[in-house]
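Quick one: structure for this chain?
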Amino acid sequence: MRDRTHGTCRKKRSLLIAPFVGKLKQRITVTHPFHPWLGQEFELLDYHRSWGKECVNCCDQEGCLVTIPLQFTDAMGVKDPFLEASAGRSYFRVEDLLQLAELTKKLRT
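Got it. Here's what it folds into:
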């Protein structure tokens, strides 16, 4: 699935401040035997939940945002780094709060 409303992929890894970030998975491979992208590798941007399902956002070769169900990839056993680091202590990601602040600022003007 391609999300063309967001335009090109923005690399979220431009500012890396966590010491363990170099050990995280940065590319995923589609492993589902019936998926049309079987065997293709993508740059992993982030993990998220959509309609109760875990998904990964990736960049395809054209630079478009692609969302793939997590269980269709080789990243299935890899935990979401935010959830691991927060250990349930935070309900909101910093990047999501920043987006919310930006949205509320636009709504006020």
